[in-house]
Description:
Layout (H helix, E strand, L loop, with lengths): L5 H26 L1 H8 L5 H27 L1 H19 L4 H15 L2 H10 L7 H9 L1 H20 L1 H27 L16 H7 L2 H30 L4 H29 L2 H20 L7 H15 L3 H11 L5 H30 L3 H20 L5 H7 L1
Helix pairs in contact: 1-6, 1-7, 1-8, 1-9, 3-4, 3-5, 3-6, 3-16, 4-5, 4-6, 4-9, 6-16, 7-12, 7-15, 8-9, 8-12, 10-16, 11-12, 11-16, 11-17, 12-13, 12-14, 13-14, 13-17, 15-16, 15-18, 16-17
Amino acid sequence: MLGLTRLGIQAFLAAMGIQLVSSLMGTAVASIAPEIAKSLNANSTFAGLYIGFLYVGACISSLTGGNFIRRYGPAHICMIALAVAIISLLLCMVPWEVCVIFSAFVLGLAKGPLMPAINTMLSRQLEKGQYNTVFSIKQCAGPVGMALSGLVIPFLTVRYGWRVGLSFVAALCAVTVIWSMAIRKSQDANYQFKDEPITLSHLADSMKLVLKTPLLLRLSVLSIIYKGLQMSVLAYMVVFLSDMKFSLVFGGIALAVSNFGAIVGRLFWGQAANKLHSSRKALAYCGILMGALTILLSFVTSGWAEWLVLAISFILGINSLGWSGVFFAQVAKAAPEGKVAEATGGVDFFSFVGAIFVPMAFGFLGHHLGEFQTGFWIVSGVTIAAALYLLFVPDIDPTSQAKKA
């Protein structure tokens, strides 16, 4: 399968499963935000606050994850992080808004190390020529998880209540904890460095690596903008469609359809990067399209046909959610030997910054202006500007950058 060894297949399946669950648990609350906010008597900024605190926790743990992964092994860290995620989902069921927001922070602490861990596990089993294809396929598990979030959780919420929906996510997390335990011995072999220091000075290694590697720094700045738009759409699509008088279930379906589009997008943009012989150009074209389609989404009203809204959601998903496979392949290529976890964690920190502040600003605008269209226009304009800049700057050779770092 994809030219992988037995351990490579094991790592690939583990990465796919953990990526799916990570995405599902990160968007579960957004998919039923109106119901949770109603039960807590929270206002329209609830979804943005939840996403913001989730990524505050993720920022912290993404920077510290690299050293812990080298010390204890990637599969071991996945097992612990997923167990913490289960605890956070249980906290989210407490009928108190402060506790629910705090649970988002705990979930972020669990989510932060997962991408560095699975990228480390997978990159150890791949040749660099396989990165664009395999990482893009692996990233497809993310939108599958988010599609499940949009389809299954609203359905369970309407039928049985939102706590049952979150219990479904906790059960899937438990399954991945068991799988991580099963592969720990084989995947962590020859990777655990018992003398890896866990000190305050060493915990900044990921940030230092990004700041001294030009390609990683460029990708970090880009990720703030792209991730910010992505998370604004994910956090507020259901809320926006509800404001436009569409049902909660339809909003969940639209969210799911956008994530099915992401599956197509991640495969398409992975191949596009290979055909163009430039990941930079692929990411630039993707950014222009995601900005334009988000602007189009902002014009949706209750008078639009449901099939048209779903079509826009699908095409938007191809682009706004389709960029990450090419993106993380570039991060892995730019990382020095044995430093994929640190590089991924450092870049993820910046993407989490975008995921914190952009949806928060988006929610603030929506709450105070009484509509979300202006927020869509602003984040789309910034994204298109960044993509146009990326289109015209020269390439940076990731191999030479990795050696210099």
